[in-house]
TrEMBL record:
PANTHER family associated with the record: PHOSPHO-2-DEHYDRO-3-DEOXYHEPTONATE ALDOLASE
Family label: Belongs to the KdsA family.
InterPro entries in alphabetical order: Aldolase_TIM, DAHP1/KDSA, KDO8P_synthase
Keywords recorded for this protein, A-Z: Cytoplasm, Transferase
Protein name: 3-deoxy-8-phosphooctulonate synthase
Domain of life: Bacteria
Lineage, top ranks: Bacteria, Pseudomonadati, Bacteroidota, Saprospiria, Saprospirales
Length: 258
């Protein structure tokens, strides 16, 4: 069984202190459990519902913080890209480019990410079947870049909920690329009348254990030392001090399946 990797960090770079605090806390956890740690944070949030939602502290400043964390801890880093023209600039700072779920069919964005030569983590749209994800993967591979991951984050179910199908991980793995389970956003409660998504982070452990049991190569878990006061996704991020216990249970499941 391949080594598990964890993509984890805050939803967005909200200052120059919190991201590094999180990374310095998560890295030893992963080292202790034999997990590869990949730090993640959005340098800018482009897909906000409300006009007054926090989007970031400035692109270059946020990207420099992400790159600095990677260099200090000698780990890989990940951030989202939303438009094709952003890719060359962002690729200078991170190791993995993430395609948001709503944009997983955007050909020009996928091509630009592929041309960068970076790993491309494509989030499966809530509206896309596991089988149809072969097409976004093919768009990246068409550029000559075979470094592609797929990230599952649930299916739309009604107006204000998502559902996770336990068969999706093995179905996605048929595409021959690493598969990641987004344990955070699969538990979001989108489309709230307040214009701010809700979430059910108390079930992150459940989703993580199911992902481990069904063969996920990586987990995506956003975490924060004080989620309630975070500037983005406050209702869905995991409390930082709960992460180690979840990861240790995940590793026991994986070991039992070896």
């Amino acid at each position: 069984m391949n080594k598990l990797f964890l993509i984890s960090g805050p939803c967005v770079v909200e200052n120059d202190i919190t991201p590094l605090l999180i990374a310095r806390t998560v890295k030893p956890m992963c080292d202790d459990l034999g997990i590869e740690y990949i730090f993640k944070a959005s340098y800018r949030k482009a897909n906000r519902t409300r006009e007054d939602s926090f989007t970031g502290i400035g692109d270059e400043e946020a990207l420099q913080i992400i790159r600095g964390i990677g260099r200090e801890l000698n780990i890989r880093t990940l951030t989202d890209v939303h438009e094709s023209h952003e890719v060359p600039m962002v690729a200078e700072y991170v190791d993995v480019l993430q395609i948001p779920a709503f944009l997983c069919r955007q050909t020009s964005l996928l091509h630009a990410a592929g041309v960068s030569g970076k790993i491309v983590n494509i989030k499966k749209g809530q509206f896309v079947s596991p089988e149809a994800m072969k097409y976004p993967v093919e768009k990246v591979i068409a550029t000559g870049n075979h470094n592609v991951w797929i990230c599952e984050r649930g299916f739309s179910f009604g107006y204000e909920d998502l559902i996770v199908d336990a068969t999706v991980i093995p179905r996605l793995k048929k595409h021959g690329v690493p598969v990641v389970m987004d344990c955070t956003h699969s538990l979001q409660v989108p489309n709230q009348s307040s214009g701010i998504s809700g979430g059910n982070p108390e079930y992150i452990e459940t989703i993580a254990k199911v992902a481990a049991a069904t063969g996920a190569d990586g987990l995506f878990i956003e975490t924060h030392p004080d989620p309630r006061n975070a500037l983005s996704d406050a209702s869905s991020m995991l409390q930082l001090d709960q992460l180690y216990d979840i990861l240790s249970k995940v590793m026991r499941i994986r070991q039992a399946l070896e």
